[in-house]
């Protein structure tokens, strides 16, 4: 049994004003990130990762799937060929614009899109048989709210899939990981250790059935150009990553490939079933 998450580990007690302010920050970041986000990872790398996610999720042609915080629809469109129907929802209209373009380019007819908030999903109870979210929890003030919404719109016995970057279990290294990610992307709130994510799902009465992990490899400069950090923060991030080469203190993998520095973000896929 995984440990409970201490209340202090999540940004609880935030009022509506703080939520609105944070949503504005996320919208600002992801409106600017829409195109570079869609293009920053090599398509062949994405294809390999998407195959792992789809195989791990256990979805099939009878599933109606929802992709929460779908971004430019990369994973949504990958799922579309394996399920009966798929819906993608994102807070940023620019992300949905790119998602619509991608679905049209792939000639997909079983995909629907909405602009909306993960903390208040505009769908009826038990609408879907599978609900997935990728790289969203670390941007949320309280991901438990979004997770409860994912459970609400999923049918009893349905699949819940949470995919996110994760921190080392050591609190000091986890704190450094999050400080670095906040430098790179001001909309970052908190990434969690795998045990914390698992505990969050169990507290939402999701029975975990499978866990897999992978490293998402991204060129350092490509990552910075697609993240829009505050003035001066890109230089701090770059310097810290270069200092950490061969050390591994931060928790974000890094290596040299000629003149390039490659980042490797540890990512977990947790699959569970609703009760």
Distance between the termini: 17 Å
Major sheet: 8 strands, mixed
Catalogue the unreliable spans.
1-13
Tally of contiguous helical segments:
9
What would you call the structural class? alpha/beta
Structure description:
With 275 residues, the chain is of the alpha/beta class. It has a single domain, classed as Rossmann fold (3-Layer(aba) Sandwich), CATH 3.40.50. It is built from 9 helices and 8 strands. The chain has helices at 16-39, 43-57, 74-80, 93-105, 143-152, 171-184, 194-203, 220-225, 233-244; strands at 64-68, 85-90, 111-115, 128-134, 154-165, 206-219, 253-257, 260-274. Strands 1, 2, 3, 4, 5, 6, 7 and 8 form an 8-stranded mixed β-sheet that branches. β4, α5 and β5 (154-165) form a beta-alpha-beta unit. α1 (16-39) runs parallel beside α4 and α6 (171-184) crosses α9. The chain is globular, with a radius of gyration of 18 Å.
């Amino acid at each position: 049994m995984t440990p409970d998450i201490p209340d202090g580990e999540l940004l609880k007690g935030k009022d509506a004003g703080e939520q609105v302010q944070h949503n504005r920050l996320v919208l600002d970041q992801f409106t600017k990130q829409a195109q570079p986000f869609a293009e920053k990872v090599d398509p062949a790398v994405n294809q390999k990762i998407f195959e792992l996610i789809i195989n791990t999720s256990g979805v099939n042609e009878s599933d109606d799937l929802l992709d929460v915080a779908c971004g430019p629809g990369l994973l949504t469109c990958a799922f579309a060929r394996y399920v009966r129907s798929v819906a993608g929802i994102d807070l940023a209209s620019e992300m949905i614009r790119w998602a619509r373009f991608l679905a049209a380019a792939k000639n997909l007819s079983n995909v629907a899109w909405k602009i909306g908030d993960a903390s208040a999903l505009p769908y009826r109870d038990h609408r879907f048989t599978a609900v997935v979210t990728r790289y969203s929890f670390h941007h949320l003030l309280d991901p438990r709210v979004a997770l409860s919404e994912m459970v609400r719109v999923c049918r009893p016995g349905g699949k819940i899939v949470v995919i996110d970057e994760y921190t080392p279990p050591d609190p000091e290294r986890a704190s450094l990981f999050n400080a670095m990610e906040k430098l790179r992307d001001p909309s970052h709130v908190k990434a969690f250790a795998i045990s914390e994510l698992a505990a969050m799902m169990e507290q939402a009465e999701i029975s975990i059935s499978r866990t897999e992990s992978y490293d998402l490899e991204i060129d350092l400069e490509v990552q910075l150009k697609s993240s829009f950090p505050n003035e001066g923060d890109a230089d701090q991030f770059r310097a810290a990553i270069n200092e950490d080469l061969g050390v591994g203190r931060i928790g974000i993998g890094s290596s040299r490939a000629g003149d390039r520095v490659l980042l490797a973000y540890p990512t977990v896929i947790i699959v569970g079933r609703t009760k």
